């Protein structure tokens, strides 16, 4: 009575699990000639494209944002982001570790599902960098400049990259070009994620 009917659990009737869907970031090519030491230094956040509902609702309150990049061990990126929050300058420190492939990095957050994958998509090291970030299934694209303003040609390139990953003009935000923080006092430093 307790025997299974013949053919159950064996043969071609067994279904294979479908492969996991490709993450949006896997389709993004990393910069080939990427020199990490040349990425070091100060950068200004010029623009960002994202599905983020907070950005959409608070785009009128965007603050000038600057980052300082160091390459402490020759392979990971230590990024300090300086921005104002309620009128105070804050520093957010993050450490992006090298991932399996060249030009790809991983920020390990606290807790399940808090990791962020990052790809250096394109840069000339001296005037602009286009970086892609993915948390969960959500992708965002950021344009950084060595100065707070970049050429129209670079903005056009950024907007093409944004459309290529399925984001649109109405999800693209440009940041103020003045009012940057240069530092934060010891009470306004956060380690972790933005």
From TrEMBL:
Residues 1-25 are annotated as: Disordered. Keywords: Disulfide bond, Secreted, Signal. PROSITE patterns: LIPOCALIN. InterPro entries: A1-microglobln, C8G, Calycin, Lipocalin_CS, Lipocln_cytosolic_FA-bd_dom. It is found in: Secreted. Transmembrane segments: none annotated. GO terms for molecular function: complement binding. The keyword Disulfide bond applies. One of its GO terms (biological process) is complement activation. Residues 40-174 form the Lipocalin/cytosolic fatty-acid binding domain. One of its GO terms (cellular component) is blood microparticle. Belongs to the calycin superfamily. Lipocalin family. This is CO8G protein. It comes from Circaetus pectoralis.
